[in-house]
């Protein structure tokens, strides 16, 4: 499906790609769920990938919360720039490295639900109009939400599928 251009498309693709990741994870037998990925990948296993999605959900929620008050959010995170995202992702991986997969799945579900509420609470115009909100700069709120949801889930699906062969 192409990049969402309407609220309904955003909701549908977000849910579709999220469920696709969860269905893929559920397709593996229990003993393979903690299998290490091949060398060369920052995310070392399924837990790392799901934790990564969860943490980026939390950052998106923070950007939104701060931005909607009229303040400028720390994007991508305090102490990081878009050029240092690999360092940020390494930090995220370390944060969740000792948390069990079952707990990460619950965290992910909760943060996913919160982003869906944000989408639901806005009109199509609020989501897709560029420059609508000062904090989104020259782009739209939907652009950030697509990156944090449907596009990110597509990345996760492909990574898990590739690494679990």
Write up what this structure looks like:
This protein has 165 residues and is mainly α. It is 61% helix and 0% strand. The chain contains seven helices and no strands. Helix 1 packs parallel to helix 7 (150-163) and helix 2 runs parallel beside helix 4 (101-120). It starts with 6 loop residues before the first helix and ends with a helix.
How would you describe this structure in keywords?
single chain; 165 residues; mainly alpha; 7 helices
* Class from helix and strand fractions: mainly alpha
Number of strands: 0
Low-confidence stretches: none
Rounded Rg: 16 Å
Give me the number of helical elements.
7
Mean pLDDT: 97
Shape type: globular
Q: State the share of residues found in helices, binned by percent.
A: 55-70%
How much β-strand is present in the residues? under 5%
What is the ordering of alpha helices and beta strands?
A: HHHHHHH
Major sheet attributes: none
* Span of the ends, CA to CA: 25 Å
Quick take:
With 165 residues, the protein is mainly alpha-helical. Helices cover 61% and strands 0% of the residues.
Secondary-structure blueprint:
Blueprint: H1 7-26, H2 46-67, H3 85-96, H4 101-120, H5 124-128, H6 141-148, H7 150-163
Helix pairs in contact: 1-7, 2-3, 2-4, 2-7, 6-7
